[in-house]
Design a protein that fits this description.
By secondary structure, the chain is of the alpha/beta class. The protein folds into 2 domains: about 180 residues, Medium-chain alcohol dehydrogenases, catalytic domain (Quinone Oxidoreductase, Chain A, domain 1, Alpha-Beta Complex), CATH 3.90.180.10; about 200 residues, Quinone Oxidoreductase, Chain A, domain 1 (Alpha-Beta Complex), CATH 3.90.180.10. The chain contains 12 helices and 18 strands. The strands form 4 sheets. Strands 3, 5, 6, 9, 10, 17 and 18 form a 7-stranded mixed β-sheet that branches. The protein is globular, with a radius of gyration of 20 Å. Bound molecules: zinc ion (ZN). The site of zinc ion (ZN) has 9 residues, from helix 2.
């Protein structure tokens, strides 16, 4: 098969080349990859990889959506079914897995970090990591869903869930996580603000539902209940100051550096909470895919041919954007684009690079409005996927390999 292979560290370290087909271990199934998106972790793996146990050469890519071509016996999966991968191969035995908190698994192997990733013709993963999708799923959008949306979901609705009436400030809008956080928080009915140094990004944030957007380098004239932070030292002090007493600062990264200073009196007098967050759990992934299934848009900036992966990485490094998706054939790019509700003005020609501004997964699969809380009704996130009195989305009883949407939106799915 062909794959984007990390041969060595550095800007010229990734090569699109022949690579041995994956050989599934017991209990693993194989996905033929249609789309996978570029993330900042790809840059980290290319340039450092420090602290992540792996060996070179390694196939890159922490996301993948495509079609099942080989299903493990007893997995319940069917060849020919579309699927998206949960990128964390978790052990299922440690105390964290038993508590349903897979990102903390003591033995986790994340694709594209600890094991071969999704920028390849094929990938093998434990069958429990396969989320089957309906036949009309848009795999381009699915290929951009895992990392950004799951991380954002956990930040907003994880250990300390957003409550009705609360406000959110998203610092440094523009990347995959922050864009997903904006969409999810607006969808939940929160009052949302954003910051960016880029005026165009601020305008896009307001157009996407933000109540206000401010220059990241200036004053932020708001106080909020929750700050979503991924910038680090460049904005840290103002992020802390923007919190109301009792507020919480949720951190998933530090693009401007790794170390910050914290005023301890501000911490204890205001009784604020600082929460670290990364990726998300299996039940959280089922929940966020259910919300996307209910109509939440997945923003994608650009679609590349996968052979252009090194160029997409360079563009990500230069522009700080993540929302590029790479697909494995011109035909699939075209077909996937034509199926998407948001692609009416987009011309996905064979061999062309086209901008995709908005697309949706599972168009037409759900009754309109059945699962969607309306802006202003102050619904908490736990209600987002609670269609027809179904189970709240963060239940830990999701069945590995079961259709996520069917589980989390049971009673509301037409398939
Ligand atoms: Zn585990």
């Amino acid at each position: 098969m062909k794959a984007a292979v990390l041969e060595r560290r550095g800007v010229d370290g990734v090569i699109w080349r022949d690579f041995p087909d994956p050989v599934p271990a017991e209990g693993e199934s194989v996905l033929r990859v249609t789309a996978s998106s570029v993330n900042r972790v790809d840059l980290y793996m290319r340039d450092s990889g420090s602290g992540i146990t792996h060996t070179l050469p390694q196939v890159m890519g922490v996301e993948a959506a495509g079609e099942i071509v080989e299903a493990a016996p007893g997995s319940g999966l069917e060849p020919g079914t579309k699927a998206i991968l949960f990128s964390e191969a978790y052990c299922g035995r440690c105390r964290y897995c038993l508590a349903g908190d897979q990102p903390l698994c003591e033995n986790v192997k994340i694709m594209g970090e600890h094991r071969h990733g999704g920028f390849a013709d094929y990938i093998a993963m434990p069958s429990s990591c396969f989320f089957p999708l309906p036949n009309d799923a848009d795999l381009v959008a699915a290929g951009a869903l895992m990392t950004g949306h799951l991380t954002a979901w956990r930040m907003l609705f994880g250990k300390r869930a957003l409550r009705p009436g609360e406000s959110v400030l998203i610092v440094g809008i523009g990347g995959g996580v922050s864009a997903a956080a904006l969409a999810l928080a607006v969808r939940a009915g929160a009052t949302v603000y954003a910051t960016s140094r880029d005026e165009a990004k601020r305008a896009r944030a307001v157009a996407a539902g933000a109540a206000g957007a401010f220059d990241s380098g200036g004053d932020w004239p708001v106080t909020v209940d929750v700050v979503v932070e991924s910038v680090g030292p460049a904005t840290w002090d103002r992020s802390v100051r923007a919190l109301r007493p009792g507020g919480r600062l949720v951190v998933c990264g530090g693009t401007s550096g790794q170390t910050v200073e914290l005023s301890l009196p501000r911490l204890f007098f205001k009784q604020i909470e600082i929460i670290g967050s990364t990726m998300g759990s299996y039940p959280e992934f089922a929940a966020v895919t259910g919300v996307v299934a209910a109509g939440l848009s997945v923003a994608v900036d650009e679609v590349f041919d996968r052979a252009d992966y090194p160029a997409a990485l360079d563009r990500l490094a230069a522009a700080g954007r993540r929302l590029a998706v790479l697909t494995n054939s011109p035909t699939e790019r075209a077909e996937s684009g034509l199926r998407s509700a948001g692609l009416r003005s987009c011309r996905l020609r064979a061999g062309a690079r086209e901008a995709v501004r908005s697309s949706r997964i599972w168009r037409g699969s759900f009754p309109s409005g059945a699962l969607a809380p309306r802006r202003g009704n102050r619904l908490g996130a736990a209600s987002v996927c609670d269609g027809a009195g179904a189970t709240p989305p963060l239940s830990s009883s999701a069945t590995p390999g079961s259709p996520a949407a069917s589980y989390y939106c049971k009673g509301s799915v037409r398939q």
